[in-house]
Design a protein that fits this description.
With about 450 residues, the chain is mainly α. About 75% of the residues lie in helices and about 0% in strands.
């Protein structure tokens, strides 16, 4: 019978482990992202057997294993590529590598079906965004919160206007035609993604022009995909630039002078929140998400925007206690650290068609999209100083206006290492996208047919 020492119930043999056991522990303490290499090998073996059987479950346990392995392996590879690792290549690889592997059939069809079904049915993206939004808002300095939300509109509006002018000028000069450039390239770039941008745009265009909605959707989707990739790359460049010019960035703080503080007792040293506190905060986050989802169901209000407004009101009204705020922030940290790359892998498989991305790779279209994204971000960078915002962080928020909706914001902020900007990114994506789509359809009704 093993003996128990007096120090805490450990086996006496653990005090002097064998050389082989010590070596094994060192191996298990290595990590690919957050996963131990032996666990990765075990997951690969288990999933391979399920693939051989022809039916990979689409439930939570299987996809936790599959997405964590795929996402963190891609991220670790991306973080080790010279030069590119400083340009957000980990996020790019975690998103677009699985899209390509799925397209060419390297990812087996049973596995693709499992990931796609899980991503479509689990609402994991919305849970992620809810955790990031609520946790980051409740971790912000409430004295600066409201001014930040008002200030961010100035670089966003100015950037949108400049990007519209630059994009249309470049596309027309390259022979794409003004109308095509405006309605089929520049507007989709800033429309807010696929669900909130490409789909309503193509439906509106179809109703107004009596063309096929499917064909119009196929036209506006590629610019959205390519602009999101462009924004990811530029966000990575800005993140690298911030390391050389730290005075230009708040490192995820948008406003000059901003810092994350608890609601009260700022100078007190507080213990880490207990598991019960984090659990309570998770239920609170889910409740806020459900409020947004219900508002969208009943009144067709954008769910993420409602969720964002509720979180802001909770912070300003001191509705959540300091204990729950700490729990929500701990939940934010967990999702940011442990879920981001697995989620990007799922997005790559289920939401990023490789054909649509490749079809946008014509030189005039590429140049027009890059010019549009660059001018939008550059305007945010320049105008930030007039609003006492950090230029790099304001430019990154503007970049989310060119992203692939919520999925694009996740990838852009991951490449920039600034997930705390998610609340402001939602303004750029959701509100900016909705305004863009509305104005575009009004103009299309008069001039686009």
């Amino acid at each position: 019978m093993s003996q128990i020492n007096s120090g805490g119930g450990e086996d006496a043999t653990d005090a002097n482990p064998s050389v082989l056991l010590t070596y094994w522990w060192r191996v298990t303490d290595l990590s690919i992202g957050i996963i131990s290499p032996p666990i990765v090998l075990a997951i690969v073996g288990i999933v391979s057997i399920y693939i051989w059987l022809g039916d990979v479950p689409s439930d939570i346990p299987m996809n936790i294993a599959v997405l964590a392995t795929g996402g963190f392996v891609c991220a670790e590879v991306g973080k080790r590529v010279p030069i590119l690792r400083n340009l957000g290549f980990a996020a790019i690889l975690a998103t677009f590598a699985p899209s390509y592997l799925s397209h060419v059939g390297i990812l087996p069809r049973p596995l693709v079906r499992s990931i796609s079904a899980f991503t479509d049915n689990s609402n994991i993206l919305y849970l992620f965004v809810a955790s990031i939004i609520v946790g980051s808002i409740l971790g912000m300095d409430r004295r600066l919160l409201i001014t930040g939300f008002l200030k961010v509109f100035v670089p966003l509006i100015a950037g949108s206007a400049v990007a519209l002018a630059v994009g249309c000028t470049v596309g027309t000069a390259l022979g794409l035609g003004f109308s095509h450039t405006l309605f089929k390239i520049v507007v989709p770039v800033m429309a807010g993604g696929v669900g909130e941008g490409a789909i309503p745009l193509s439906i509106g265009y179809a109703q107004l022009s009596h063309q096929s909605q499917e064909l119009l959707f196929a036209e506006v989707l590629p610019p959205i995909m390519l602009s999101s990739l462009t924004a990811i790359v530029f966000a990575g460049v800005l993140n690298a630039a911030g390391k050389y010019r730290p005075n230009l960035t708040g490192h995820a703080g948008l406003q000059i002078g901003e810092h994350d503080v608890p609601l009260i007792g700022e100078d007190a040293i507080k213990p880490a929140p207990s598991p019960a506190t984090v659990g309570s905060a998770v239920v609170m986050v889910v409740t806020v998400f459900l409020m947004g989802a219900l508002a969208q169901r009943l009144w067709n209000w954008p769910g993420p925007v409602v969720m964002l407004a509720v979180a802001v009101l909770m912070k300003l009204g001191r509705i959540a206690s300091p204990r729950l705020e700490q729990g929500a922030y701990a939940n934010y940290q967990f999702f940011s650290t442990c879920v981001t790359y697995p989620l990007l892998f799922a997005i790559g498989v289920a939401k990023t068609p490789w054909d649509a991305l490749v079809s946008a790779f014509t030189l005039p279209t590429i140049v027009t999209i890059v010019a549009t994204v660059a001018s939008l971000m550059a305007t945010g960078f320049v105008t930030a100083k007039f609003m006492r915002l950090y230029p790099i962080d304001a430019a990154i928020v503007n970049a989310c206006h060119c992203g692939q909706g919520g999925t694009g914001s996740v990838a852009i902020l991951t490449a920039a290492n600034r997930m705390q900007l998610m609340p402001f990114a939602q303004i750029a994506t959701r509100i900016g996208g909705a305004i863009t789509v509305t104005l575009a359809l009004i103009l299309f009704a008069r001039f686009g047919q």
